[in-house]
Structure prediction request, 91 residues.
Amino acid sequence: MPTFRAKQVLDHGSNCLGTYTDKVMGPILRQFGACKSISSYGYRYDADGLPVIEDCQKTSFFMYYTSPESMTLFRALYNNDYGLQDAYVAF
Prediction:
């Protein structure tokens, strides 16, 4: 998936379960390490605005799948939000 497509989706916001559900469940999930935003890890960013790979390797990769950014992108791909599924197939 091209990075610019992911940014296009994330520019509209991100959440783990839903806008309202995250307000209630978010604090509980974060106590268990889930639903933690990528920006909250304190990583350095490269010129493209992406976290530096060496910093990302400090955390088990599966934890990133529970981030609001990841959950939003998976949901957008599944639901074809913003034409993401169409763009992925065309890619």
User: Anything to note?
Assistant: The radius of gyration is 14 Å. The mean pLDDT is 91. The chain has one domain: 3-90.
